[in-house]
Amino acid sequence: xxxxxxxxxxxxxxxxxxxxxITVDEMLEVTKELGGEVxxxxxxPLIEKMQEGELFSIAKKASELNIELELGTRGVKPDHLLNYxxxxxxxxxxxxxxxxxxxxxxxxxEQAYERLLAVLPKYEKAEVKLAIETYEQVKTKDIISxxxxxxxxxxxxxxxxxxxxxxxxxxxxxVELSAPYVTNLHVKDFVFTRKSGxxxxxxxxxxxxxxxxxxxxxxxxxxxxxxxxNAIIELWLPFTNSMEETIRLEKEWMRKSFxxxxxxxxx
Length: 267
Known about the structure:
Layout: E1 3-6, H1 11-14, H2 24-33, E2 38-42, H3 46-49, H4 52-64, E3 68-72, H5 78-91, E4 95-98, H6 109-126, E5 129-133, H7 140-150, E6 155-159, H8 171-178, E7 182-187, E8 189-194, E9 201-206, H9 215-224, E10 231-233, H10 243-265
Parallel strand pairs: 1-2, 1-10, 2-3, 3-4, 4-5, 5-6, 6-7, 7-10
Antiparallel strand pairs: 8-9
Helix pairs in contact: 5-6, 6-7
């Protein structure tokens, strides 16, 4: 299992309120410094506007650092997925994470199935996999039903059990349901905290190993199903007192999370 980092781990460093947003090249360098083997450019709209030369430059940088690239987007409209396949081919990417829904488009499971089926021949020809992420807007069983119907090694699940809590799906149940179909893994830890005044809770992130994510159970389930997939670290870091402090914490959480995941994989 290779370990990598997503743009979601650089959320505040990428934020427009940061005076000097981090670049893709810089994120690749951080990935290398941490010992990462994969970098997932996920929900990063700028990638869609880049010219071929810019994409080739990113691919060259990743190759020089010996880092595998992945892509992430949202939605299953055929034109959109084919555009991302074009970008993937220019970057040398072999896996694209997506979700059924996007802003203004919430297809039924039948519609999602038909759309994925429409682009599947081109994805199979290019040998690029689509990984559908588990998240709160669509029940895990519905995502799996589509993956099962398509029945192709090029359409699987991006497992992220933390997302599904908002739909009252227990992470352990999501892991067990998804394990046979997982082609990509998002790893982020989380905790419930009381809101001020003790009225309600917030679901927020924390460094890996300090929260409720049962990493051991998740890794064992994937091993049992012989799913040797890339593990991509993400962070759910709330804004703190200032941008400077938040970015400092983001870097600290990234290092802690990476070290913890590496330690568990080496046991």
